[in-house]
From TrEMBL:
GO MF entry, a single one: acetylglucosaminyltransferase activity
Pfam hit, one: MGAT4A_C
Pathway the protein takes part in: Protein modification; protein glycosylation
Domain MGAT4 conserved region: 25-170
Protein name: Alpha-1,3-mannosyl-glycoprotein 4-beta-N-acetylglucosaminyltransferase C-like
InterPro entries for this protein: Glyco_transf_54, MGAT4, MGAT4_A/B/C_C
Record GO biological process: protein N-linked glycosylation
Residues annotated as domain MGAT4 A/B/C C-terminal: 179-277
Native source species: Oncorhynchus tshawytscha
Length: 279
């Protein structure tokens, strides 16, 4: 009986708070129309209740919407970025759009809930969250690319208007079969050969001064059917591209005499990779 009474009281309180938007009137910031102000103000209060409810249920809280698609291995990518953070942070962003793909510490959720509830009528939620970050002394945006989430909805929750919003930085991270990767090319810093096989931003192989005869060998841990091979070299600025290389398919793997990797008894040429593409 007590549980029912408390639940009824909470539902009544939520309905009462929602009705206040219509009774008390709202600020017309940004010259928005009244119905738009009502919509975004209620949305802020909804988020306030949501993040308060999620407090203490995990180490982190990821804000998403119900009309997004997720990149493959997005959870592993987020975990990797969190583990690599060397400075204190309040918000990590994994999408360039609105209130999608924003990560918070769970311990900050009560603060975020009160912040949204206090300023619910001032501005939209995607404006408020940037101010929240600054208040927690994170002055710069920490956003990772490629984005891990893409907006897929075609219509806005507000009046059902058409919405073609897309994240231009979104990329569905690839997945490669389990394999061991070896190379005799000297490595620059921590960018080892295995990173050429791993998905995610910042995971790439960086070799120093490769020369004729050097190799990068991938040995599958289990038999696979190879349907395509893509080789990408160079930086986003177009520097350090591999001028020419031969791609070979090996059969009957054996351990190299040096014991430092695996080679094959037979090799078949499947293509030549040049800076301009495949030949």
């Amino acid at each position: 009986m007590v549980g029912w009474s408390v639940g009824w009281l909470v539902r009544w309180l939520v309905r009462w708070l929602t009705s206040c938007f219509y009774i008390l009137g709202l600020k017309r910031n940004f010259n928005d129309k009244a119905d738009r102000v009502t919509f975004r103000s209620k949305q802020n209060v909804d988020y306030s209740f949501l993040v308060q409810f999620c407090t203490g249920r995990s180490l982190h809280y990821l804000q998403l919407e119900d009309d997004v698609s997720c990149s493959h291995h997005f959870l592993s990518a987020i975990r990797g970025h969190v583990q690599q953070m060397e400075v204190p942070w309040a918000t990590l962003e994994f999408s360039a759009l609105g209130y999608i793909g924003k990560l918070y510490h769970s311990e900050h959720l009560p603060l975020l809930s009160r912040f949204l509830f206090l300023f619910y009528q001032e501005m939209p939620c995607d404006f408020l969250f940037s101010h929240f970050r600054v208040l927690l002394t994170q002055s710069e945006v920490i956003r990772f690319t490629p984005s891990l989430f893409q907006h897929t909805g075609s219509y806005s929750s507000f009046l059902g208007t058409f919405n073609k919003l897309k994240d231009d930085d979104y990329e569905d991270l690839y997945t490669n079969p389990a394999a061991d990767v070896y190379s005799d090319i000297p490595v620059y810093k921590e960018h080892v050969a295995a990173m050429a096989w791993s998905p995610g931003t910042g995971t790439f192989f960086w070799g120093r001064s490769p020369s004729s005869g050097n190799h990068l060998t991938v040995t599958f841990k289990h038999p696979v059917v190879v349907t395509s091979i893509t080789v990408v070299t160079g930086s986003a600025e177009g520097r350090d591209r591999l001028a020419s290389a031969t791609v070979e398919l090996g059969l009957h793997p054996v351990t190299e005499k040096t014991g430092s990797g695996t080679t094959c008894q037979e090799f078949y040429n499947v293509g030549i990779c040049r800076e301009a593409g495949w030949t």
